[in-house]
Amino acid sequence: MKDTEATLDRSELEGASPGGRSPTAMALRRLFRSHTAVAGLAITGVLVVTGLLAPWIAPHEYWRISREAVMQAPGAIPGHALGTDELGRDVLSRLVYGAQISLLLGVGATGVAVVLGVIVGAVSGYFGGWLDSLLQRVTDTFMAMPTMLVAISVTAIMERPTLASLFLIMGFLSWTTVSRVVRGQVLSLRENDYAVAARSLGAGDGRILFRHLLPNCMGPIVVLATLLVAGMILFEAGLSFLGLGVQPPYPSWGRMLLDAKPYMEESPWLMVYPGAAIVLTVLGLNFFGDGLRDAFDPRMKV
Amino acid sequence: MSGNATGTGPLLEVEGLHVHFPVHGGILRHVVGWVKAVDGVSFAVRPGETLGLVGESGSGKTTVGRAIINLLRPTVPGVRLSGAIRFASEGGVVDVNGLDRAAMHPVRAEISMVFQDPYSSLNPRMTVEQIVGGPLRIHARLTKAEIRERVLALLDRVGLQPQYASRYPHEFSGGQRQRIGIARALATRPKLVVADEPVSALDVSVRSQVINLMQELQEEFGLTYLFVAHDLSVVHHISDRIAVMYLGSLCEIGTAAQVYGDPVHPYAKALLSAVPQPDPHRRRSDRIRLQGDIPTPLRKPSGCGFRTRCPLAKPSCAEKVPELRDVGGGRLVACPEV
């Protein structure tokens, strides 16, 4: 794989690629050459499609309780391919809807984190001086917080957190990495000649920041955001497993694990399926994120 | 010399320019010293001429260029600037050094810059059209179609095909990129172009093409160049007059023939004797080899900055900073010994 990367880079240097190819287009081309990245993308794609089409994919409503079919093993009765839980709800349907919740919270919380992180990081790196010092100390403070504990306390106080409040909380606690990365990027990019050139031509701060600097930070931001989605899905699963995240009857994977815990011995499938869903999703997103990182910056390969 | 917008007055007049950068140190990051990058530089550039500004690395020539387009104050916190940079703009003579951001804005359409590194000076995520059209979007009230038309005309003028407009910088060679940089610098039809070592990063074979292009453009658009370089053969070719800088000060300034043909200042002599002579039969035997390196501008020698390496140095050189004096023919030299 290393070899293909090397030859690819050389061909680009020689200008072998036909005209009008943007750096993003080239990065995507590199992305599709990596098997792990494509696998990650496939898993992520399955998650996204499942989440978006949940009402059409799920064989049953996630809340439908059936007294006749309680704790049925997978395949034991027709119509419940992955069995049923202690209330007779269809496990497959709950998994499918769980994907929707995970996707929603993962993307929503990441969105909050990225927007906050980009704003704080860009302002901090671009303007520097006392503003930078202040914002960096704020960032330090947020980094010093035990994220999970804070989230637990806040959601515990709220008793029944809504989905919106959940992703706000999660995003608000997770923007620091993005802000550090964006600050570093902006700090180095603003000394670049093209930023100096823009300034010499009379471009304002907003124009330089948004038209010249931030587009050149997009690679790291996208990579980080992908990995953050995975982190957020884990975060949500953890919170829900403690009973503090997504509230019933919404079928979060973490919540499913919690509900399945008492029946672990007699009905292991109740835990295996949501557990596997979490692991697979996070793994897929991480593969995809790593692939993106390699594609956007081939020199940064670890 | 006096600032004069009309008639034959200079387009640009720099008088007593000092640029001192703070050096921070210690645990409190307080100012522990000053780098005197530019220490009392005065010169004038007449409309339509090319002034070559030469000197070795660290002589402050790039800083002079950046001071002229007012790039230092907003970028470098704590920088100390003094002296006057008078520019005969459309709206009369302005002192660039004293202008705030808003007042500087219209002047930025009249002074533009060509950068040394054609790789880092073009935004990799913008197409050529966006890069060259950028200054127009900032300064001119034009529609998209008008901007596109101007961009295509500019590209054509600098020798690039119109279909390149939608391409990205990484798809071009160094020489082509520098042509893009030149097109961008000319987009607003400036009067003065500060060219900061525009060909130093290019292959020798491409240099002359870019230099010739710049000369053609100068005639066509009536441009005035401040051409910063360390390569004397390049400067000699394009410059009407040459100013030699050493350690933040000017040593000698005169016509290209004067300075290149018969340098007076001991540093200018040494610098010129270092120009490679391709013909082995005509190699000079009297090549002056300077000892040591250029001193750090953080701790400049007292008096004349060049005295530590000067073959003519006398004890008196340490006492007083030599001023530029006329040695005849309009040539100014900052050395009392010649």
How is this structure best described in words?
The complex is a heterodimer of chains A (302) and B (338). Helices cover 71% and strands 0% of the residues of chain A. Chain A is mostly helical and 302 residues long. Chain A has a single domain, classed as MetI-like (MetI-like fold). In chain A, helix 3 (35-52) packs across helix 13 (269-296), helix 5 (91-127) crosses helix 8 and helix 5 (91-127) packs parallel to helix 13 (269-296). Chain A starts with a helix and ends in a 6-residue tail after the last helix. Mean pLDDT of chain A is 82; it is low at 1-18. With 338 residues, chain B is of the alpha/beta class. Chain B has a domain at 12-103 and 239-274 and 285-333: Rossmann fold, CATH 3.40.50.300. Helix content of chain B is 29%, strand content 24%. Chain B is built from ten helices and twelve strands. Chain B has helices spanning 61-68, 72-75, 101-107, 128-139, 144-157, 174-186, 204-221, 232-238, 256-261, 266-273; strands spanning 12-25, 30-45, 50-54, 80-89, 92-95, 111-114, 192-196, 224-229, 241-246, 249-255, 325-326, 332-333. An eight-stranded mixed beta sheet of chain B has the order 6-7-8-3-9-10-12-11, with helices on both faces. A four-stranded antiparallel beta sheet of chain B has the order 2-1-4-5. In chain B, helix 6 runs parallel beside helix 7. Chains A and B meet through helix 10 and helix 11 of A and helix 4 of B.
